[in-house]
Amino acid sequence: MKHMIHHNCVRVLDYFFDAKYSYMVMELEQGGNLKDYLLDRFNLVVESRCKVIAQKLAQGIEYLHSMGILIGRLNIKTIMMTDKSDQAVPRISNLSQAQIATPFMKSNEPLNLPG
Asked: How far apart are CA 39 and CA 41, in angstroms?
């Protein structure tokens, strides 16, 4: 995962495991999550800006899928913003529910990351 670099995904800097848990060290995004970003603007974000945010997220998802990563849960709290400006870039951050796709999976088969 450390080798996956995309401008719409929070970068994993390191990861490690112990007997009980898995840990990921990720880059810090200064803008908080998308929920707070919208609340700070009183949910008044113009349609063109919403379109840009959605396109950027779709690009991030497309990249993860091209790497064989399926996102478990993507929601407004797991999308981080690079900063608090009106041009902040959304980044997918929560890969804790992500799964690695295999060519022999059934479409309804649950997947798990190692660790």
From this structure: 5
Q: What is the 3-state secondary structure (H, E, C) of 63-114?
A: HHHHCCEECCCCCCCCEEECCCCCCCCEEECCCCCCEECCCCCCCCCCCCCC
- CA 92 to CA 9: how far, in whole Å? 5
Q: pLDDT tens digits for 88-107? A: 999 998 776 677 776 666 55
Element (H, E) at 37: helix 34-40
**Length of the chain counted residue by residue:** 115
Question: 49-60, pLDDT tens digit by residue?
Answer: 999 999 999 999
Tokens of 32: 């908080």
Q: Which class would CATH give 12-100?
A: mainly alpha
